[in-house]
Write a structure and sequence with these properties.
Elements lengths: L1 H14 L3 E2 L6 E4 L4 E5 L4 E5 L6 E3 L3 E4 L2 E4 L6 H13 L9 E9 L4 E5 L6 E4 L13 E8 L5 E7 L5 H5 L1
Antiparallel strand pairs: 1-2, 2-3, 3-4, 4-5, 6-7, 8-9, 8-11, 9-10, 11-12
Helix pairs in contact: 1-2
Amino acid sequence: MTVRRSVRIDLAASANGFKRIRDDKPVYYNQKHNAILSTNGYIAEVISPQPYDSVVIGQPYILRDGVCKKVTYRKSTENLKNDIRIMLENLDKFSSNGFHQMTVTERFDTGLIKLSSSYCPEVFVDVSNLNDINGEIGEQLWCKIEVNENRAPIVTAIEISKPSEYLNLI
């Protein structure tokens, strides 16, 4: 079973431009994106090692039957390959402290806004209590996304500009 799983991972990794860098563990490197791919065979994590502002991206969210949920397990090579592609596409849309750049796609009269990106197709936020955030359609916001007990995304913090742990140390 281990051999079969690593074959799927090798296929998904190589399809996204990664080369294996360790023989004893499934760890890969993509020179074009300066990214490391680490996986246990069912989920993946993409790491962009930077001197002061490293980024770690876990599995993305999927929208199925109108419900957005965090991916926690993949047994299909094709699905894992697509997840890795989405993570690579979003490398520059993450900050070192876990914020993700999202776009306001819908605004409701109740004060709720709908945010989306290719990494997280939809999440709703009540901005009526937030200062300095209008939530106009097309506005780019930096959101800290976590999951609730149902694996659904929730926003726990919002910033207007890209936050950085390194900038806070200066």
